[in-house]
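Here comes a specimen:
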Amino acid sequence: IIIFAHHKAIMDALDSHLKSLKYQYIRLDGDSSSETRKKK
């Protein structure tokens, strides 16, 4: 599943929720370095 969100606050809320459910996921956003993006 790929999830897109326009607002970082929405991504933060999703991040919290997925962590509480112990889901494994990768998050890439504007704060991710280009090196991190290349690795993912």
